[in-house]
C-alpha cells in the first residue's frame, strides 16, 4: 500500500529510502523497515536498486545492538559533485563541492554585479571549468549547479525580479542560461537564503527556526524553518533592507524609494556618509578596513547602523521567534553586532529573546557556497527526483514506487 508522509512524499519509494539514509534518519535495512513498514524483501530490493545506480554504498557494520552486526548504509558521496556560484554586489566566487559537503576548489574575483548578466555569467562559466579541472572531476560528473545572487529570486523560474542593486538582471533567465551551457539542473536563490541554509546545515542542523541577516553592500535576511528556506510567495521574503524608517525618510535608497533601512545602515550607505564627513571611502569593504583600524567615525557609524538593524530585527524576532539569529556580511564585526544586541534586547518581547542565540557567521565567506551545495543536493536528491531518475536509468528494474 502506498503511504505518504506529511510533505506528500511516497514513503514506499526507493527515493524516500535514500532520503532517510541521506538525512541520517535510518542507517540499516532494519531501521528502514521500521521507518516505512516495508517488508524485508521489498526493502532489500529498493536498496539493491539504489546501490546499482550509485546512490548508496556500504558504510561498515553496526555492532551496537548486541546481536549479529547489521550492515550500515550511507549516501555515496562519490556519486558526483556540485558547482556553486556566489555572486555578490562586488564579488564573484565559483566553487566545486563534493556530495559530502567538502569544498574541493574555489576561485574568487572582484566583479561588480552591475556589470550585467552576460559578462558575469561568462566569468562563471570559465571559472567553473577551471575549478572543476583543479578538483580532478569532469563535466559529466556534475549533479547540479547552485547560484546565489544579491536580489529577490523567483525560485521556480531561476530568475531575479526587480533587484535594487542588480541593474540589467531583472527577469534575466539565469538558470536557463547556465543549463544550456552545462546541461545540468540549475537552481538560483537569494544569497542571504543560501547563507542561512549553509549555517543551519553545518552548525545548527537541529535548529527549528534560524534567521540570518546579511549586511554588506545591501541588507537582506534569510529564514530557515524546519530545515527549509522560507521564500514567500514569489521570493520576496527576508527583504528587510527595504523596510522604510520614518525618521530617515530623507535618505534615498538604491531602489529609488526613500527611508529604506539599506539607505542608512548598509555598508555602501555608511561608506557614502564617511566620505561626506571628510574621509573618502569608496566601498563597504574599505569602510570595514577603517572600522578595524579604529577610525572613530567609522566605528560610530557601524554601531549606529547596528542599532537601526536591531530595531527592525526586533520585529522579525517577535514574528518568527527563531532559536538562532546570525549576523553576517562585511559589517558583522563587534561594533555593529553590539549595536544590534543593544536595541534588539530592549525592543523585542522578553519571551521572544529568552531562548535566542545571537551570533556572527561561523562559515564566513563560504556560507553561501555551502548553502548553495545544500540547496542543490536537497533538490537533485529529493525522493521524487531520485525515483524519476531511477525510472529513466532502470525501466526494467524492480518497481520503485509501489
Quick tags:
402 residues; alpha/beta; Nucleotidyltransferase, domain 5; five-stranded mixed sheet
Give a brief outline of the structure.
With 402 residues, this protein is an alpha/beta fold.
Write a structural description.
The protein is of the alpha/beta class. The chain has three domains: 14-55 and 382-393, no CATH class; 80-195 and 367-380, 2-Layer Sandwich (Nucleotidyltransferase, domain 5), CATH 3.30.420.40; 204-363, ATPase, nucleotide binding domain (Nucleotidyltransferase, domain 5, 2-Layer Sandwich). 41% of the residues lie in helices and 19% in strands. The chain contains 14 helices and 14 strands. It has helices at 14-22, 29-36, 40-52, 117-135, 174-182, 191-203, 261-265, 267-276, 284-292, 296-320, 334-347, 350-353, 367-380, 383-393; strands spanning 56-62, 70-75, 81-87, 92-98, 103-109, 142-149, 153-154, 159-160, 186-190, 209-215, 219-225, 228-229, 324-328, 357-360. The strands form four sheets. It has a five-stranded mixed β-sheet with strand order 5-4-3-6-9, with helices on both faces. A five-stranded mixed β-sheet has the order 12-11-10-13-14. It has a two-stranded antiparallel ribbon with strand order 1-2. Helix 2 (29-36) crosses helix 3 (40-52) and helix 10 (296-320) crosses helix 11. The longest helix has 25 residues, at 296-320. The radius of gyration is 23 Å and the shape is globular.
Helices and strands in order, then pairings?
Elements: H1 14-22, H2 29-36, H3 40-52, E1 56-62, E2 70-75, E3 81-87, E4 92-98, E5 103-109, H4 117-135, E6 142-149, E7 153-154, E8 159-160, H5 174-182, E9 186-190, H6 191-203, E10 209-215, E11 219-225, E12 228-229, H7 261-265, H8 267-276, H9 284-292, H10 296-320, E13 324-328, H11 334-347, H12 350-353, E14 357-360, H13 367-380, H14 383-393
Parallel strand pairs: 3-6, 6-9, 10-13, 13-14
Antiparallel strand pairs: 1-2, 3-4, 4-5, 7-8, 10-11, 11-12
Amino acid at each position: 500500500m502506498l503511504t505518504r508522509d506529511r510533505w506528500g512524499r511516497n514513503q514506499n519509494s526507493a527515493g524516500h529510502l535514500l532520503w532517510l539514509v541521506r538525512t541520517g534518519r535510518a542507517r540499516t535495512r532494519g531501521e528502514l523497515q521500521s521507518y516505512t513498514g516495508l517488508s524485508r524483501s521489498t526493502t532489500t530490493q529498493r536498496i539493491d536498486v539504489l546501490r546499482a545506480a550509485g546512490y548508496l554504498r556500504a558504510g561498515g557494520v553496526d555492532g551496537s545492538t548486541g546481536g549479529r552486526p547489521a550492515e550500515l548504509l550511507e549516501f555515496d558521496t562519490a556519486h558526483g559533485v556540485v558547482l556553486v556560484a556566489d555572486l555578490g554586489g562586488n564579488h564573484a566566487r565559483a566553487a566545486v563541492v563534493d556530495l559530502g559537503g567538502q569544498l574541493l576548489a574555489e576561485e574568487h574575483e572582484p566583479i561588480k554585479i552591475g556589470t550585467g548578466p552576460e559578462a558575469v555569467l561568462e566569468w562563471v562559466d570559465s571559472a567553473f571549468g577551471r575549478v572543476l579541472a583543479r578538483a580532478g572531476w569532469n563535466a559529466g560528473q556534475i549533479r547540479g549547479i547552485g547560484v546565489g545572487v544579491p536580489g529577490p529570486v523567483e525560485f521556480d523560474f531561476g530568475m531575479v525580479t526587480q533587484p535594487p542593486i542588480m541593474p540589467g538582471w531583472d527577469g534575466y533567465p539565469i538558470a536557463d542560461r547556465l543549463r544550456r551551457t552545462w546541461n545540468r539542473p540549475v537552481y538560483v536563490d537569494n544569497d542571504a537564503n543560501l547563507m542561512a541554509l549553509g549555517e543551519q546545515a553545518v552548525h545548527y542542523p537541529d535548529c527549528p527556526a534560524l534567521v540570518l541577516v546579511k549586511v554588506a553592500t545591501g541588507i537582506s535576511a534569510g529564514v530557515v524553518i524546519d530545515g527549509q528556506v522560507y521564500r514567500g510567495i514569489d521570493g520576496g521574503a527576508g527583504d528587510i533592507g527595504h523596510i522604510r524608517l520614518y525618521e530617515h525618510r530623507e535618505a534615498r535608497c538604491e531602489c529609488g524609494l526613500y527611508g529604506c533601512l539599506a539607505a542608512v545602515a548598509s555598508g555602501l550607505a555608511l561608506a557614502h556618509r564617511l566620505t561626506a564627513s571628510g574621509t573618502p571611502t569608496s566601498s563597504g569593504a574599505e569602510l570595514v578596513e577603517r572600522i578595524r583600524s579604529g577610525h572613530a567615525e567609522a566605528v560610530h557609524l557601524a554601531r549606529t547602523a547596528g542599532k537601526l538593524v536591531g530595531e527592525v530585527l526586533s520585529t522579525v524576532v517577535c514574528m518568527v521567534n527563531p532559536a538562532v539569529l546570525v549576523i553576517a556580511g562585511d559589517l558583522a564585526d563587534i561594533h555593529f553586532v553590539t549595536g544590534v544586541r543593544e536595541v534588539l534586547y530592549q525592543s523585542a518581547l522578553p519571551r521572544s529573546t529568552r531562548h535566542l542565540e545571537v551570533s556572527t557567521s561561523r562559515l564566513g565567506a563560504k556560507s553561501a557556497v555551502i548553502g548553495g551545495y545544500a540547496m542543490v543536493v536537497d533538490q537533485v536528491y529529493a525522493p521524487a527526483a531520485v525515483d524519476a531518475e531511477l525510472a529513466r536509468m532502470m525501466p526494467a528494474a524492480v518497481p520503485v514506487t509501489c
